[in-house]
Write a structure and sequence with these properties.
5-stranded antiparallel β-sheet, 216 residues, alpha+beta, 37% helix, 2 domains, 4-stranded mixed β-sheet
Length: 216
Amino acid sequence: MRFLLLIISRKYRIMILTGDKLLKDSLSLMQELAAYGNPKTKLSRIIKSGTITQVRRGLYVEGSPPPPIALAPVIYGPSYLSFEFALAFHGLIPERVAVYTSATYGKNKNKAFSTPFGVYTYAYLPKAAYPYGLERREDGGYPFLIASPEKALADVFYKRSGITSPDDVRDLLFHDLRIEPSSLRDFDWNQVREWSPLYGGRSVRALAKWGIETYA
């Protein structure tokens, strides 16, 4: 066993997870902690000893931690890695992105978590657009979901308002994001066009229209 994830609620309902498999239920773990009289105090001492690491409130890692990329969907979800992090992952933008940027849905505001393993941010998308264009990848045997190149770019455009003209699209692609035009040649622009109504607004529609006209 390489690591354990402990998810603890205010009422001490505890699960231990490794990857996506449940190892212990709350009752069995609480029985272990109950021997110390005060489970909350014992947990605090364990954290101070370094046996487990607190990722965020209610979420802890015991033992050797997984790759930071694999923690992104566990810290806050449902979510998948997207936006600038995914663009860098796919080699579309030159800069290394230090923040693990993810997309989520059904939330009323964006979230950010600063953890011992890195900074993780979560930006909302329309629910209708959320489940498309996702890829399952692994890092060291740990699975995670990440947007395809096309989906990551569409997500970025959704979060940028005021993109309506071809000049707006080119400015964001080649000036702000510094994407090489040749790297967009093999994009599935028809797929982006199919997704665009799901986002609402005009930015993703403008991206799809520009891509089809430029690379058709």
